[in-house]
Every structure is written in structure tokens, then in C-alpha cells.
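ugh finaly. both done.
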Amino acid sequence: MERLKKLEKSARLKAILSFVEGRVLADIGTDHAYLPISACLSSKVERAIACDLNPAPLLKARENIIKYRLQDRITTRLGYGLQPLQSGEADTIVIAGIGGINIIEMLKDLPDDFRIQRLIIQPQRDIKAVRRALTDFSFVDEISVLENDRFYDIIVVKR
């Protein structure tokens, strides 16, 4: 089977994948579903949920999921932020490649009783604002990764 070259070339995506653990991964803003596909192919998780706000990226995600024959392990959902998820449904939730202010808004919309075991955040900008907004979370890890002459900050938290 063809390997997932996009993820293999991306230091950012490989770093995010290294923090994924548990049975179920939810990828918010999945785009092409590279992360859920890689997580399932590498047996990091049993199942994944690929969520996106826009139908076009979700269609591409579905095509890739079918290409890698993972439609029995990865479901796609259309919706904003974490709204397509039920509380506690995923062990690890990834929000990556999205602006920090958007991430903050997504987290503000969560009900207080929404269970999150592990949250991996990689904001494209406004990292300081994101850190300040994570008052309800405990920091587990944080790294910066260099890719294409740009540093990407990856924050891992738990509630």
C-alpha cells in the first residue's frame, strides 16, 4: 500500500502524531485526514474521527480514507470545532493548523462537563493567547518544531 508521503515529510505532523495516545483520536480541522490515517495505519489508535467545518476538505478526507481502506476505522463529521463530538468520545483530540483565536473560541464553546482526556493544540498564530486561555487545563508537554523555515508550537494538555 502506498505510504502517506505528506505526513512522512512533515516534521509538524510527525511531532503531533508522536503525542497521540488512547483508543480513539478526533482530528478537528482534519483537511485531508492525513493525521487520522497515519494514526490508524501505525496502530497508535484503533479508530479516529475526522472533523472539518467545510464540505470540500471533508470530501477529500473521505477519498483518502477510502484509498487507505480505513472506512471501517475512521468516520468523518461536518461541523465547527468540537461540536461534532460527544463528551468523552475521543481519548485524544487534535486541533492543528488553525489560528489561535479560533482555537480559543472553540474551547470557550465547550460545556464545563465536556470530558477531554488529552488535547493536542498546534495554533498557526497567537500562541501566547492560546496559552493564557488554557486555564482549565494542565500542561503535559510543549515543543517547537521547525518545518519549511518556520517554527510550529505544539502544546499537549489534559483537563
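ok and the 2nd:
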Amino acid sequence: MAQTISILYEGVSYTLPYTIIKSKRKTYSISIDGEGNIIFRVPLRTSSKDIMKMADEKSHWIITHYLQILEKKNNRPHSDLTDTQRTALEKRYIEAARSYIPKRVAYYSDMTGGTYNRITIRGQKTRWGSCSSKGTLSFNWRLMLAPPAILDYVVVHELCHLKHMNHSADFWKAVESVYPDYRNARKWLKEHGNELVL
């Protein structure tokens, strides 16, 4: 059963699910995933009391972002597909992605440089793509539901990580040199990514 935390904000008490991830880090961070779960990333020796204090201090940020995510989640398009139909359709999109995305990667790799070893197609809930240190590029099959230009942006983004394994200024310059309109593509994904569902 998920852990929950109660946060009082503007006279209203919100009970939200949360996860604590402890690691060898020096800083604290708070994020909220697409399902509205709060994720606390904290140093190893952080106490529960410290986490509750942080949640209280960041209550405005947590609740405003939580409500935005909840609104997006509630506004996702609903489908009349049966589970069998959805599974069959997903399979077709995955097959299409396995054929189409490598072609876009090959097209843009000459412009970005770097060497990749393989391409995988996955169904991540919160990521559109990733690039491993071993040169494996992974892409979300749901990109096939997006406009082609948006898919291309994600391809360029991950290819640029082959040379810049970070989001530094040099990384974004590399992205912009190949995909000048990347800011609008990022904005589109942020605003409409939750709509890319069957």
C-alpha cells in the first residue's frame, strides 16, 4: 500500500501518495510524476521529520503542481477500445515504431555525430527517450501518436546525448544546430504528451 502524506494548503488538507528515494547525494529534490505521486530524493541519512518539514516548506509548489497534473490526467482522452483491441493496436504501433524510428535515427545521426550501438522501442510511462552510456538509444512507441516533427525532436535530443551525456549549454546548442525549433517541440510534449494514449 502506498505511503501518503497530508499537506495543508490554503485551508484545505490534501492527502497525497509519496515515495522516498535515498541515495549518496548532498541535495534534496521534490518531483511529481504523471500519476500525481510525490517523489522525494534525499541524502541517505535524511529523517522522516526532515522530509515532512521539507514538504511543509514546499507545500505551495507541491500542491499547485499536483493540481496541474491532476487536471491533465482527468482531461486525457477516453477510449471505447476493449483491452483486446487496445493490446492489438499497441502491438501494431510498436511494430511501426520499430520500423520507422531507426530510419529517423539513421537520417539524423549524420548531422549529430556520435555512435550508437542499438535502438530499443519501449513503453515507458514518463520518458519519451533515453540514451545509455553504452550507446543504446531507447524510444517510447507512443511517439508514433505524435506529429512527425515531435518524434524527430526526440530522436535528435537522444542522438545529441551520445556526445553530451547531460543537459548542458553545449548539449542544447548541439540540439539547436540540428533542430532549431526544439523549444516549441519541448513545449508541445509538455502540454500534449498526456494525450498520446490509446
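summary for the 2nd one i guess: The first strand starts at residue 3 and ends at 9.
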